[in-house]
Amino acid sequence: MVMVGVLTFLLVLVAVALIGLILIQRGKGGGLSGVFGGGGVEQAFGTRAATMAQKATAVLSILFLVICVWLGLIWHKRGPAMEPMPSAPTQQAPASPVPGGN
User: Across the chain, what does the average pLDDT equal?
Assistant: First the structure.
């Protein structure tokens, strides 16, 4: 159970980092990097950083996929015996008599 929490936390961190990296890179059409001032990574750190950002994006993408598969396998192995317990049944109010009926 702790492993699922840790992996889920890592998945969220990787996803946020991946989103940030993708948004600052310049695409073929300029992408969202044009909205934030044009060059994105290339303008700030040069073209060498652009290739580094592309490699980092590839690594984070693979890490994201691996964590997703790992979490899927963990959830699959848990099976129906370890599913969350259903909530306690609520008490229903006694049925009131139907007006006009006997």
Answer: 77
Structure tokens at 61: 């993408």
Question: How many Å apart are CA 15 and CA 90, to the nearest integer?
Answer: 39
Tokens coding 28: 């073929």
Model pTM score: 0.58
Of 9, 45, 40, 13, nearest to 24 by C-alpha is 40
Cβ-based neighbours of 10, under 8 Å, separated by 6 or more: 67
Residue type (1 letter), 86: P
Ramachandran bin of 65, using left for φ above 0, alpha for ψ from -120 to 50, beta for the remaining angles: alpha
| Domain-wise residue ranges, the chain | 39-80
DSSP assignment letter at 32: G
- 7 with 70: CB under 8 angstroms? yes
